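Blackboard transcription, Thursday session:
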Amino acid sequence: MAALLVLSVVGICAALLWRFARPWRRSRRIEGILKQQGLKGPPPEFLAGNSGQQYQMRIENQGKVMETCHDIVAHVTPEVVLWSSKYGKPYLTRSLDVPDVTFFDPDCAREILSRQFENFPKSSLQVQVVVDVVGHGVLGLEGGQEWSQRRNVLSPAFHTLKLKAMYARIRECSEKLVAKWKTCVPHGQAELEVSHDLKKLAADLISHVAFGANYEKGEQVFHGLTVLGDLALEAQSYFWLPLFSYYPCSLNRKIWKVKREIDMTVMSLIHERRRSSGNYGDDLLGLILEESDKSTGFSDKVVVDECKTFFLAGHETTGSLLGWTLFLLALNPDWQNRARAEVQEHFKENSQVGALDKLKLVGMILYETLRLYPAVSEVQRVASKDTVLGGIKVPEGTQVTIPLLWIHHDPELWGADANEFNPERFSQGAAKASKHPSAYMPFVMGPRVCIGQTLALLEAKVAIATLLSNFAFSPASSYKHSPRMHVIIDAPRGIQLVVHKLSE
Ligand code: HEM
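(Written on the board underneath:)
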């Protein structure tokens, strides 16, 4: 009996060694090839690589308040500034055990995201975080044929003309916020923390756009996803326990229950629509069901996962764009006045959707906001075969990082005023705004560009135009500037502004 036990333990140890030793040896081989080409980086720690150091530096800065300026790269991603100045560009790090090269050149970004797109899928670890919360929607697929088929079916639903049909709903949601803020400023002006309400507006917008008249179900999904997000974060501290997500412990049972409730909410809506004899409705859910019928057809589970994905991907991102835009307009009254004049000329109470095309300055302001405060600070991919980037041989299995925030603030690309708010640079479009046509990528680029880009900009244009028609904004003395990367680049202490009601 004892011999059997010893044999089992030895067997398990050998299996674990085999399981972990192979990838470890492979990672060291890749690192060797990269180092031979002159790449350098910070010394990695056992198991954590350089991930712990990166996390520590970011956390330390999160507690600090910085001067209110837009030179935020060293505050939000301190490790990028430190390591690039110490080890050069590109530099080599270890993300847990995986060798990672950070490329700063927009030409390399274009190779990774566009030209050699098929050689750079997402890594399984990267998509697992998304899958844990919203399942296997398009955001949670590594790449390959399944992703491309899914994207082909979904893309027509996000076509500009179809989205424009949602204009009235988007305007209605924005008007609701105006009504609320009017009650908050009974004496003409008041100091408000606006980021919370703007996130709520973004949630409202996606609920109405995705589910139309059934938007209350969208609100239920939001509530569920928020609870799930917190539980998933708690579960991450057990990542070292093999197969933890299958243990029937109380945390996992809570997670499974919330997941079931969200899925049932969306599923009931899908069944309702399917029963309505082919007329699925002109909201996002209706458009997806229609497109799915035209092709091979999605299973109901896939439609559920895609809906959850839109809620996850389109909520915080759009909320953050709205918050930073008002913040920047408050700091730049000249641009605020110019934008308001444009809005007052073209965006009247009874304006139709076509009026949005005339809001050129508002469009430029949104672009400049997404340059200075993009939702994400970096993009990661993994090489699925040996390739060459910027003259460097990149072996299969190497992770590559594009420091998007750093590139958006690089004076060599954007000029001496790279850290200033100057929407004028976008007057000839995004490709001509900098010295490199691919230096601007708040929605990334190439085949995997954000599918909701047009929708996000449409929502933001309507919301900002509606708010500018009714209020003026100026900085509040209580505001503390401390942007951080927390899933997206946000303002953890809120965005306090003085909101002035305009005379009717
Ligand atoms: C200002 C608002 C937004 C910003 C800045 C933004 C940014 C991004 C970025 C950077 C990515 C690429 C992530 C990566 O590849 O690692 C992405 C992907 C995606 N976004 Fe957005 N997004 C916004 C709004 C939206 C909205 C409103 C929706 C949908 C309703 C949406 C849906 C998606 C989806 C489904 C993907 C995955 C696409 C794919 O992998 O094929 N996003 N977004």
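Lecturer's comment: The CA atoms of residues 11 and 17 lie 10 Å apart.
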